[in-house]
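Hello forum,

I keep getting stuck at the same step: I have a sequence, I want structure tokens, and every attempt I make locally crashes halfway through. Rather than fight my setup again tonight, could one of you with a working pipeline run this one for me? It's a single chain of 150 residues.
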Amino acid sequence: MIGRWTGAVEAFTDNMSTQKALRFLAPYLAFGVFLLVNAIAKHDLTPFYIYRLIILVLIAADMASKGNPARMLLIFASLGIVALLTGISTSGMISVYAFTSVGLFCSTLWPCIFTLVVCGLGKHTSQGSSFLIMMIMGGGIVSWLQGTVS
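Reply #2:
Ran it on my machine without issues. Output:
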């Protein structure tokens, strides 16, 4: 949710100063919702506070991409790989934080992939995006089928 809200900032306004403010507010607002839900459920929130720093990395990477989907894909995929390698090469809570950060960094990849896939299709854009959405559904069906077979 944090990554998706960060990636969606540009969809809300064309005003650059508002976008800059939302780039900082949106991920922390999403994080606040996450903390609130866990506080209501009476979970211990202490392990989650480190994510304030990880969200800063997410914001810096988003700003470094400058809204370019290809650059954003490269940056966030690289961060996901770094987090994955960190998780593999460490142990304890550092490994846990690294592995959960993979999901945070990869959550912004779908909008980039979708944008890059339909770019340049011209009059076939609607058909191409339809095929892409059907593949998502196919992935859901294949996962269900794999679970049933297993």
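Helices lie at 2-7, 9-12, 16-40, 51-65, 69-89, 92-106, 109-118, 125-149. If your local run keeps crashing, start a new thread with the error log.
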